[in-house]
Design a protein that fits this description.
single chain, alpha+beta, elongated
Length: 617
């Protein structure tokens, strides 16, 4: 009596609320009923119960109701024919698929200790205790693996078991997430864990296309299906790490659609429409040639997958330690496995204490605080226990409207589920914020459970509502003698000596004319107020400064000095509807002054509404 399919030595069966089920087929010289006996550690769990029948040299049997746990010893019998399967386990099964970071390329010198209740169905389709390296491509019976394997390019067949064992002993690389993940899930669930190894390094999404499944072992998807069919069990979930090969200008834009097709195809083919997926956002790459824009665009698509594909979560990897230019190291894989176990705890074990991976929610510009720091506040969802960093928090960039990086951040503060980016106050227009920009960023922020922030591309920063444009057009008088401007009357707007000037981009810059000189000058402009309103005057300057709106002097600072900073002074006034003259009188500060900034903000606009704002001349 010999089993061909359904129950192999070391097999992990997928638990269900009604117990595990194994549909077993094989050959048998006898005919008649087939019975099963199940023992665990000498204790009889199932005594010679009929489970099938044999005739014409073959048998079929179905064992049901096996409880989670193990190891079990299962004996099948028909007349005097017997076959014993030892050990057998009942727990959770995980399909490992993708490219090299799922295959595992961490240094074996730091490999995790194996556990007898964490098993692996290897590339040779044999169950054994899970021990790195899990993916031995050269031992697979499927040509798609060993024909592409660097170690066997000239071979016409896979390695034999002895050759594969010898090759594994020669390897210096091979640690992935598998053993770490299996051990963590064993601790969480207290049931055995089974890992099905199907990943292959350097492969693109096109090679995992479900449409290639009919090619069997000549395609990656076909080989994956052959392994799952050989196990003959439903899955608890899929562990997926892939994307590096698709982070090119030619391929990146189709990544989301290809992932949708893959997830839908596998769920269909396995008849598990709600099969959970735990995917990884690709990490870093240290390269002079990799296209950073495409790399980030692919990471962004991966970050957004949970919004598009149900029962899928994506965990970050950008902050993890690597063992070479592109592969997560052994220590990094331990952290990555913990993040994937957190996602699996929520999606599969239904642990209500868990949350999805962290996601950015919003970014807004905060007003000046008592410390005179301008800041961008970024808020995140799904933060557990607050955000932390070992050492300085790093990883954020502030961009202008065109996507250019601005060197503005001088400090990053973490506060619960929020990050404040303290800026140098040189904010002159719309901003964007991102995390993990480029191919090799330094990212250090995570929450208390160890879940890192994901890479995300440019998110618009919400600016204060009701802002006018900057005052750029002024009629400027020639220099007048004297720098004591405190007792001078408001300069007349009809001064015939004033010449019209337009300043770009936003600063009334007189540095070239004022450098090394003394005296004072007047500036005249106008503003249209569309309705009676409360207004915040926002200005900054680097010399003695006076400001009038209409006939009213709204601000005087005779001690003004360098530097001039936009929005450095905030003044509240009320203005009636209509056109108002705007006058500035400024001294040269001994030739050290450059000029000033000025714009207005309408106050009292209800949240979510728009309203006309002041219009500078």
């Amino acid at each position: 009596m010999r089993i061909e399919h359904g129950l192999l030595p070391g097999h992990v069966l997928q638990r269900t609320p009604r117990g595990a089920r194994a549909a077993i087929t094989g050959t048998c010289a006898a005919s008649g009923p087939v019975t099963a006996t199940v023992r665990r550690g000498g204790r009889l769990l199932l005594r010679a119960r009929r489970v099938g029948a044999a005739r014409d040299g073959r048998f079929q049997a179905v064992i049901t109701g096996l409880p989670a746990g193990g190891p079990y010893v299962v004996e099948l019998a028909c007349a005097k024919q017997r076959v014993v399967v030892d050990p057998v386990f009942v727990g959770d099964l995980w399909l490992m698929a993708g490219q090299s970071n799922m295959e595992g390329v961490g240094n074996l010198a730091a490999a995790p200790a194996p556990h007898p209740l964490v098993r692996c169905f290897g590339m040779d389709r044999v169950w054994r205790q899970a021990r790195d390296p899990l993916h031995q491509l050269y031992a697979s019976p499927d040509a798609v693996h060993w024909k592409c394997c660097d170690l066997s390019l000239a071979r016409k067949r896979p390695f034999t078991p002895l050759e594969a064992e010898a090759e594994a002993r020669r390897q210096a690389k091979g640690v992935g997430i598998g053993v770490f993940f299996g051990t963590l899930m064993l601790e969480r669930s207290d049931v055995p864990q089974g890992l099905i190894a199907t990943a292959h390094g350097g492969t693109g999404m096109a090679e995992w296309d479900p449409a290639l499944g009919n090619r069997g072992g000549e395609s990656l998807y076909g080989s994956l299906m052959l392994s799952v069919q050989a196990v003959g069990q439903p899955l608890a979930g899929v562990l997926w790490y892939q994307g590096c090969s698709d982070a090119t200008a030619q391929l990146v834009d189709g990544y989301t659609a290809r992932m949708q097709a893959l997830v839908a195809g596998l769920r269909r083919d396995l008849r598990q429409p709600r099969l959970p997926w735990i995917a990884v956002q690709i990490a870093r790459v240290v390269s002079d040639t990799q296209d950073g824009a495409s790399w980030n665009r692919l990471q962004e698509q991966q970050r957004l997958l949970p919004q598009i594909i149900p029962r899928l979560d994506v965990v970050p990897a950008v902050d993890l330690e690597m063992d070479d230019s592109i592969h997560i190291g052994s220590n990094g894989n331990a952290l990555l496995a913990a993040r994937m176990a957190s996602a699996a705890g929520r999606l599969v074990l239904r642990d209500r204490r868990e949350r999805p991976a962290i996601q950015p929610l919003s970014a807004r510009l905060l007003p000046l605080g008592s410390d005179r720091n301008l800041a961008v506040e970024v808020r995140f969802a799904n933060v557990l226990g607050g955000l932390e960093s070992a050492g300085l928090p790093r990883g954020f960039s502030v961009l202008d409207e065109a996507g250019r990086v601005l060197q503005l951040i001088h400090k990053t503060e973490l506060d619960g589920d929020r990050v404040r980016l303290l800026l140098t106050c040189r904010v002159t227009g719309p901003l964007q914020v991102c995390y993990g920009r480029g191919t090799d960023p330094v990212c250090t922020i995570h929450d208390r459970r160890g879940m890192g922030l994901p890479v995300f591309t440019a998110m618009p920063v919400e600016m204060p509502a009701g802002l006018s444009l900057w005052f750029r057009r002024w009629r400027v008088t020639p220099l007048q003698p004297g720098e004591d401007i405190g007792g001078l009357p408001r300069p007349p707007a009809d001064d015939a000596r004033a010449q019209e000037r337009r300043f770009e981009p936003i600063f009334a810059d007189m540095h070239a004319e004022w450098l090394g000189r003394t005296g004072h000058a007047a500036f005249h402009s106008e503003v249209e107020i569309p309705a009676d309103m409360a207004v915040e005057v926002r200005t900054g300057y680097d010399g003695p400064f006076r400001l009038w709106l209409g006939e009213r002097e709204v601000h005087t600072d005779l001690a003004g000095s360098n530097p001039a900073l936009p929005d450095d002074r905030l003044l509240r006034v009320r203005l009636a509807r209509g056109r108002h003259p705007v006058t500035v009188l400024m001294a040269l500060n001994g030739g050290r002054a450059w000029g000033f900034y000025l714009r207005l903000r309408r106050l009292g606009i209800p949240a979510g509404q728009t309203a006309p704002v002041p219009v500078p001349w």
